[in-house]
Amino acid sequence: MKLAGKRALVTGASRGIGRAIAAAYAREGADLIVTARSASELIPVREEIVAHGRHCVAIEADLAVAGEVDHLWSEVERAGCKVDILVNNAGMGSGAAPKPVVEFDDEFWSRTLHLNLTVPYQLCKKALPAMVASRYGRVIAIASINALRGGVFDAAYTASKSGLVGLMRTVAREHVRDGVTSNAICPGTCATRTSDARLGYEAARTGRSIEDVCRHIGPMGRRLEPAEIAPIAVYLASAEAAMTTGQTFVIDGGQLNA
Q: Which residues of the chain are under the pLDDT cut of 70?
């Protein structure tokens, strides 16, 4: 029970990496605040957390919409919840509009940077004061290996995830003496709905099947599973990680170095 007595806010928690992290936190004794665009998709997430004997507040919020961070935080405060662990997971990929920089859609650029970078920045501003006051806080961002290597036809995604890594490093340096740590996790290609869209585009572009694209993702010949990201998220949220801050953890099955 590494997280007993703590409460975590996980964004984008209805599926994929966010759901896997929320469930892992519940197994380790944390209470949860979970949020996503769809209230109905949060129902099974909440049920899973409650089944582990933990308290869960589910909040519907479309963080891609301006002003929704304020709405989310007002609901957190209305529920009387203190956030000890903030997991900035909600985001969008490039699968909906992959294009080279010279053809990139400006509106899609702005929407991606808002959700992937501005929202985590805004949530940090909301959560950090109470963390500092209590001398305990964990800020964790789900970035991407593209933050470290660049991507093709995904300028907005790559730029936003690179910025997210920089934001976590800045928070780490600013609060290094406050009992607050801040780190980024950079997964490789993961078996999520966001990844499905991009792989579908790659398959169509190269005339291959999605299965073949997946087999050539990296040395291990498959995508990551969301549950394979959860253990490092548990560690970073725990007291054991008190001296781990400003770091970037790559979990990619060797993809980055292939």
A: none
Are residues 119 and 240 located together in one domain of the fold?
Answer: yes
- Pairing verdict, β 85-88 and 248-251: unpaired
Domain match, 145 and 171 both: yes
C-alpha separations of 133 from 47, 83, 152, 200, 245 in Å: 32, 12, 43, 47, 18
- Please count the structural domains in the chain: 2
Q: So which residues are the catalytic ones?
A: 157
Cα–Cα distance, 14 to 214 (Å, whole number): 24
Residue 67 lies in a domain: yes
Joined tokens for residue 212 = 């073949």
| Contact of 191 with 214, CB cutoff 8 Å | no
Q: Provide the pLDDT for residue 71.
A: 97
100 within some domain: yes
Q: Is residue 90 part of a domain?
A: yes
What pLDDT does residue 247 have? 98
176 and 206 part of one domain: no
Cα–Cα distance measured from residue 27 to residue 187, given in angstroms and rounded to the nearest whole number: 22
C-beta of residue 53 within 8 angstroms of C-beta of residue 4: no
